[in-house]
Amino acid sequence: MPTPQVPAPPVDADGLGPTGRAPRPVPEPPVLTSHGPARVIAMCNQKGGVGKTTSTINLGAALAEAGRRVLLVDLDPQGALSAGLGVAHHELELTVHNLLVERKVSIDDVLMRTHVDGMDLLPSNIDLSAAEIQLVTEVGREQTLGRVLHPVLDRYDYVLIDCQPSLGLLTVNALTCADAVIIPMECEYFSLRGLALLNDTLEKVRDRLNPRLRLAGILVTMFDARTLHAREVMARVVEVFGDTVYDTVINRTVKFPETSVAGESIITWAPKSAGATAYRALAREVIAR
């Protein structure tokens, strides 16, 4: 199936996009003739409610639509990623929790297909909340997730890990096995304050556990250009983080709550919507970077 055309990002009369700068040209994603090894990306922000799970699902679906093989990892005990893909997560017999704490459980025992062609899922539920305690006494506890993912990395082009909104052991596991981090952030003052704390954590993980870890980009979500506050926060983020901020900005829309109820990505639920177009544009930026 051909990849839908992605229109150029919206610009104002001066040719500037929502970030306050001219959008940079992004090449067409190359067609792949083979898959793997996967690039592991942690979707991370210790602040909740910033669109992290929504972005993981929809970026994954957009990458799959662009011909990439994608694995989503639900590393949040709330199981929002699994629920957002229509999985009855409270009824699951095997989850990421089993994978992390039981040696006899293999990744293929837990792996699930999703309704998106080319996108698989490692689901989670509240059982995962016990993993932090169970892993504390393990040798090499920070590398546990990396060890269990390693056997399937050659099958995928991208592994997207939806981290919980905290900087505990599970999140450190994600950062230890990741090649890069995408930080979704809501365009408001408290999100801006949290970025400094998260940046400190990334530097500590890079120094002590994972020297290849880098910040892939900051994704601004829930943006409303009509408010002065949002525009001021956007200007400050771009001033501090520069080109690290993606040109693609995710605007507020009623479509995202609808997709959560439907258990689908916006790419399949409302493929012609502005939200779907935005995540396709983000996927192109991620591939290009």
TrEMBL record:
SUPFAM superfamilies: P-loop containing nucleoside triphosphate hydrolases. It comes from Rhodococcus antarcticus. This is ParA family protein. Residues 1-10 have a biased composition (Pro residues). Residues 39-214 form the AAA domain. It comes from the Bacteria. CDD domains: ParAB_family. Residues 1-34 are annotated as: Disordered.
